[in-house]
Structures are given as structure tokens and as C-alpha cells.
Design a protein that fits this description.
By secondary structure, the chain is α/β, with parallel strands linked by helices. It is built from 18 helices and 18 strands.
Length: 592
């Protein structure tokens, strides 16, 4: 497979922060790569560098002559008054029928295709931009946080599109479920270095932790050996009969060094407000209608939420999830009906736009002290800042210089320093990296109060939600099933729509030849050979995995340093063989 982009010895820094420090990577045709890293690690800078929009201080980026990049940017590319169809024709130079055909893959039709594109929601505009990318026939898609603000239905459509896209893709995302569903490779940027792993994100995170734990055990074994040698040297170097042995041991000690454990940036740990658990009905809606003076979004809402629930608000973009949340926290007046909260309710709110409304003149610490309750000490503020990765000099950074992800973490820290027994959260995971989203899910899972939230991150929803409330077609009601059931129902609806579209397209196409050609038979034979090799590789990978686990278990129990070093070498050899087999399996799987 040809190398589309080759990056060698890339260096880039902003002030004291090193973003790229000798980073190297190859992006190969037909591979879909999930790109991860902490907020502020330099992912967007790296994308700009390989696009030529950002200069490296040192290093080179080489493009294959046939490279055609389709880059999904976050900015608005639309002109005033134009329709989605007008934009697609202008962007691609293709005729209207071709633009309409590609737009259909993203369910763009009727008013969504022919009405003003600027009147569409962010999710529908993303569908239009994706159709525009596809019409330009790229062989490398670069998507920067494509799932931000996308509803579940659009995310699944994008997944289906990427699975059927038979070219390369580089996808920056904090959404583990999305990366797992679309990418066979994982690329991480940490401490200025790029690490490519031949496997999806879950396997990579597991592999990374196994590698770190293994390095810790080896270091512990080496340290024990060093102490043993040092004791021998101290005891015998003054004795004439054993001095030569002591000198020999000293040389051995010099050669015996511990390795640097590959640790990531500080681990995120988040705690939710400490509250007393309560029981019974927390909130009741009776005949409630929500919306705006000129537009009713949903009516006749009969809804109850119990203390201790973690209620996920679901529905397509534009159906009214945020309108419902705004009404619940009294920032929007109901059109009619009743909404009543239980006695002693203290609500803490986090909204999509909250991080943009911070006072830019305050420092991190000043903001937390301002937002926290009267009983919170400065030490409490520093502890929470540290938990969300604002440490050392970072606590004195002005809000105006913080990244979007840092501002989101700061807002979340302020909320968690309070005493709210009800948290109303609108997209709390947007702009947070994978580790921070996971830590937030852990905190909310252990929270003794009530959570009412929206999120487009399926992994987060599955971790946190105890019940589901659906906003759809002008109504709001409890969904009779868990989030997994809701997810399956949306998948089924999309699959049915795709079958109907394919059936309609098939009717418009001329009938093919009655029998298969010799090329078809040859391809069928090749497929059988490929399938056989894949099965053999799967057996080999399973066997090597078992051997590796067995050796790791032996290493954990081994107290003899010499035997431990031998086990370490065996594990290293098996790991190398395993990675080679996995790379071949992934290569064959892409073509099977």
C-alpha cells in the first residue's frame, strides 16, 4: 500500500510548550486511523502541519503525488442564501443529479437539500460538508472532532459512510465508541511523540496500560537486583580475599539500569459534589408545553424524574433537548402547564456554551474561588484544579489564553466545587479528551445526587445513564428501555432507510450480465485464500496472546531477578511476533 503522507523528525513548540519533538509517522492508503491525545497536546497543530497550513521548526512532511485530501473543518463554508444543493455544486463542480445522489447517502433531500443551508442545524450542516468532501473524490479524509454536536442518527450515518469509504482516513475524536466503530489503527500524540498502534482504540489503551505495568515490574526487578549487588559490594570491597569479586559486581551494577516507564500526563481524577442520597419524586411535569413565543417545540409533557436517577435526554438535533433542559432550570419560561421541583433541590448547571462566557481577565484559581461556595478553602480549589490538570503555573493562567478543552474543564471544576444535589448537564463531554471524559463518567456514576444530561458520546451515555427520556416529534416521554435498546432502535431505522434507498437506486440502473466473468471467478478464488489466511492468523494471535498472558503471570510471581529478566525478553519477543501477525490480519481484513 502506498504511503500517502510521510512525516519525519517533526519539531514544533509554542512558548515553553513542546508540541512535536522529533515526531514521525506514515499514513498509508486504505487505513483508517483514530488520532488521540490530551487536550493541548498539539493534534490540531499536527493536522495543520501536514496540510501545509502550519510551518514546522524542523523536519519534513512528504506527500504522495496522487494525494487528494478532504479536510472537514469546523468553520462555516456556506454563502448567504445558498441551498445545500447550490453549495455542493459550487464546491465540487459536479452536476445537480450527481450532487443529489451523494447527498442521499446522508439523507439530504427535500427542504434539507433545496432550502437555505444556513437555516439547518449544526448536525445537518455537517452532513452537507461531508457530502461535499465525498464529491471531490479524496483518497485521504481528515476529520477534526467530527462528532461534536452531532446527534446519534448523524453519527451512525457517518460511521456507515466511513466503513464503506475504501480510502484512508485520519480522525481526531474524543468519542471512543465512534473511533472503535470506524478505525482499525490508533495514533497517539503524547509528549511530542507519535505512536502508531495496529488496532482499535480499546485494544490500544489496554496494550498501553499492559506495557506500562510490565515496565514497572521490570524496573522493580532491576531495582531489587541493584540492591542485592550493592549489599554484596558494601560487604566485600574492604576484604582482600573478596575485593576482586566486589569490583566485578560494581561493573555489573553500572550496566544494570532501570528503564524509563512510559507514563502519560497526570491521570485525571474527578469527584462529584458530596451529597446525601434522597428518595422519591424529584421533579414532575404536568401538561407542560415548551418552546418560544412564536414556536412550540413540545406539548402536553407528562414526566417524572426520581431522586438518584441519571436521566439521559435523547433525540435528533433540533427536536428540543436543549429547550427542555433550559426550561427545567428556569432559564426559559414554559408556554403552559406546570413544572415542580421537590423541596431542598439545589441545581448545578453546565451548558454547551458555558466555557465561552468566562471572564477572560480572571486566572484559573480566581475563577474557582469566585464560583465555589463560601466554605470552600483555597486548598480545596487547588485540589480540584489539580484533579482537572491545572497544576503548578497553570493555576495562574488567564482564562483568555486557555484552549476550548481547558475552559470546559475549568467550568466543570467550578460546578463540582459546589454542593448541588442535582446536576443538569448539556453536552458535558464536548471538547474533553478521552481520559477526562472517562473520569467524568466515573464521577457521575458514583454521584449520590441526580443527573439530567444530554450527550452525543455513546460510550459516555452507556456508562452513566440509568434511564432514557426521548424528545421526538413534539413530545417528551420516558423511553421504555435502556440506552442500549434505544441505540439499537435508531440503528434499525437507519438500516431500513439505507435498504430502501439502495432498492430505489437498483431500479434505476441497467441490469448486469447474467453470469460471472473469469475475473469474478478469480476474485472469488483469491477471497477464499484470503479467508483461509485470516483464520490461520486468528488462531496464531490467540495462541500468542495466551502465551503472553501466561508469561506475564509468571513474571508477576517471579522473585529471582535473573529469571525475571529472561521472562522479560521472552515477552518482548512474543510481543513483536504478535504485532506482526496483527498488522497482517488488519491488512487482509481491509480487503476481505
Amino acid at each position: 500500500m502506498p504511503v500517502l503522507i510521510q512525516v519525519r523528525d517533526a519539531h514544533k513548540r509554542y512558548g515553553d510548550q513542546i508540541l512535536l519533538d522529533g515526531a514521525e509517522v506514515s499514513l498509508v492508503d486504505n487505513q483508517k486511523v483514530g488520532f488521540i491525545g490530551r487536550n493541548g497536546a498539539g493534534k490540531s497543530t499536527f493536522l495543520k502541519a501536514i496540510l501545509g497550513d502550519e510551518e514546522l521548526e524542523k523536519g519534513e512532511v512528504t506527500h504522495h503525488p496522487s494525494l487528494r485530501v478532504g479536510y472537514l473543518r469546523q468553520h462555516d463554508p456556506f454563502q448567504p442564501g445558498e441551498s445545500a444543493l447550490d453549495f455542493l455544486m459550487r464546491e465540487s463542480g459536479q452536476p445537480d443529479w450527481k450532487c443529489g445522489e451523494v447527498a442521499g447517502q446522508f439523507e439530504l433531500k427535500g427542504d434539507y437539500l433545496e432550502g437555505p443551508v444556513k437555516s439547518l442545524s449544526g448536525g445537518w450542516q455537517t452532513r452537507v460538508k461531508l457530502a461535499g468532501l465525498l464529491l471531490n473524490d479524496p483518497n485521504l479524509l481528515m476529520l477534526d472532532e467530527p462528532t461534536n454536536f452531532l446527534d446519534l442518527r448523524t453519527q451512525i450515518l457517518l460511521e456507515h459512510f466511513l466503513r464503506n469509504f475504501n480510502k484512508a482516513a485520519l480522525i481526531v475524536s474524543h468519542d471512543r465508541a465512534f473511533l472503535k466503530a470506524t478505525c482499525s489503527q490508533t495514533l497517539e500524540l503524547a509528549k511530542g511523540k507519535l505512536t502508531m498502534f495496529s488496532g482499535p482504540i480499546d485494544r490500544y489503551l489496554e496494550h498501553r496500560e499492559e506495557r506500562r505495568e510490565h515496565d514497572r515490574r521490570v524496573n522493580a526487578t532491576v531495582a531489587a537486583k541493584q540492591k542485592q549487588l550493592q549489599r554484596f559490594i558494601d560487604k566485600n570491597r574492604a576484604n582482600a580475599s573478596t575485593a576482586s569479586q566486589a569490583r566485578s559486581k560494581a561493573k555489573q551494577l553500572e550496566r544494570l539500569q532501570t528503564g524509563e516507564v512510559d507514563v502519560d500526563e497526570p491521570t485525571v481524577h474527578i469527584r462529584a459534589p458530596l451529597v446525601t442520597p434522597r428518595q422519591g419524586t424529584l421533579m414532575r411535569c404536568d401538561g407542560l408545553s415548551i418552546g418560544y413565543p412564536d414556536h412550540t417545540v413540545a406539548s402536553n409533557i407528562q414526566l417524572e424524574i426520581e431522586h438518584g436517577q441519571r436521566a439521559a435526554i435523547v433525540g435528533d438535533n433540533g427536536q428540543g433537548k436543549t429547550t427542555l433542559l433550559r426550561t427545567l432550570v428556569d432559564s426559559l419560561t414554559p408556554i403552559e402547564g406546570k413544572l415542580k421541583w421537590g423541596h431542598g433541590t439545589e441545581i448545578g448547571t453546565y451548558a454547551q456554551h458555558v466555557y465561552t462566557s468566562l471572564d477572560p481577565r480572571r486566572t484559573v484559581l480566581e475563577h474557582l474561588e469566585y464560583e465555589s461556595n463560601a466554605e470552600t478553602t483555597r486548598q480545596d480549589c487547588l485540589a480540584m484544579a489539580g484533579a482537572l490538570l491545572f497544576r503548578d503555573s497553570h493555576i495562574n493562567k488567564k482564562v483568555e489564553v486557555l484552549s476550548g478543552g481547558e475552559r470546559a474543564r475549568l467550568c466543570m471544576a467550578g460546578l463540582l466545587l459546589g454542593t448541588a444535589n442535582v446536576l443538569v448537564l448539556d453536552e458535558p463531554g464536548n471538547h474533553l479528551d478521552v481520559e477526562t471524559v472517562e473520569a467524568l463518567a466515573d464521577a457521575l456514576h458514583n454521584y449520590k445526587g441526580t443527573v439530567i444530561f444530554t450527550s452525543h458520546d455513546r460510550h459516555f451515555m452507556q456508562r452513566v445513564a440509568t434511564n432514557v427520556i426521548e424528545v421526538r416529534d413534539g413530545s417528551v416521554k420516558n423511553y421504555f428501555g435502556n440506552y442500549e435498546t434505544y441505540l439499537q432502535s435508531i440503528e434499525s431505522e437507519i438500516d431500513e432507510g439505507e435498504r430502501q434507498r439502495q432498492s430505489a437506486n437498483a431500479k434505476d440502473k441497467p441490469a448486469g450480465k447474467a453470469s460471472a466473468s473469469q475475473n469474478d471467478r478469480g476474485a472469488h478464488k483469491q477471497n477464499r485464500k484470503t479467508e483461509k489466511e485470516i483464520k490461520n492468523l486468528e488462531k496464531k494471535i490467540a495462541r500468542l496472546d495466551d502465551e503472553k498472558k501466561s508469561l506475564n503471570e509468571q513474571l508477576m510471581c517471579e522473585s529471582d531477578p535473573d529469571k525475571a529478566m529472561k521472562l522479560h525478553q521472552q515477552i518482548t519477543d512474543i510481543t513483536s511476533e504478535l504485532e506482526t501477525a496483527e498488522e497482517r490480519w488488519l491488512e487482509l481484513s481491509d480487503f476481505s
